[in-house]
């Protein structure tokens, strides 16, 4: 399972020599049916710069996901198995990762103004946009 968590990259010119890659490409993740957020949630490394899709990495990801599903099915609580209820953590994790709530972005426009006095006057500002110190003397 650890082989799938690190992608395999062959050194240029020397196809026999392999090394550990920086991360899986987005295309390799899509070929398996994962998004970038789901892959990171599962602990997989993602390299957004790579554009290539290598078959050996896709096959390694498929084996990794299958082993993950089998492990979670084997770890089901015994009471739920007796009742016939299927408890699959990977399916629920993938469903939760797919339901990403998008929050509306708050846009900040300009500086945040202090509340003007009740008279309707704007607060006095210095050269650098800060409040001027009032003369108390």
UniProtKB/TrEMBL annotation:
GO molecular function terms here?
structural constituent of ribosome
Q: Where is this region: Disordered?
A: 69-137
Q: Which InterPro entries match?
A: Ribosomal_eL13 (IPR001380), Ribosomal_eL13_CS (IPR018256)
Establish whether keyword Cell membrane is in the entry. no
For this record, an example GO cellular component is: ribonucleoprotein complex
Composition skew (Basic and acidic residues), residue ranges: 69-123
Keywords, alphabetical: Ribonucleoprotein, Ribosomal protein
Name of this chain's protein: Large ribosomal subunit protein eL13
State the organism named in the record: Caldiarchaeum subterraneum
Give the gene that encodes this protein.
Answer: rpl13e
């Amino acid at each position: 399972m650890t082989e799938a968590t690190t992608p395999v990259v062959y050194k240029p010119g020397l196809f026999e020599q392999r090394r550990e890659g920086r991360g899986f490409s987005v295309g390799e993740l899509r070929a398996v049916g994962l998004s970038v957020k789901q892959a990171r949630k599962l602990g997989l490394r993602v390299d957004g710069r790579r554009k290539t899709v290598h078959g050996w990495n896709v096959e390694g990801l498929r084996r990794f996901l299958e082993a993950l599903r089998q492990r979670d099915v084997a770890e089901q609580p015994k009471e739920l198995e007796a009742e016939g209820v299927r408890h699959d953590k990977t399916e629920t994790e993938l469903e939760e990762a797919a339901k990403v709530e998008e929050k509306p972005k708050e846009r900040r426009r300009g500086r945040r103004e202090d509340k003007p006095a009740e008279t309707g006057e704007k607060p006095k500002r210095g050269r650098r946009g800060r409040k001027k110190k009032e003369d108390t003397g």
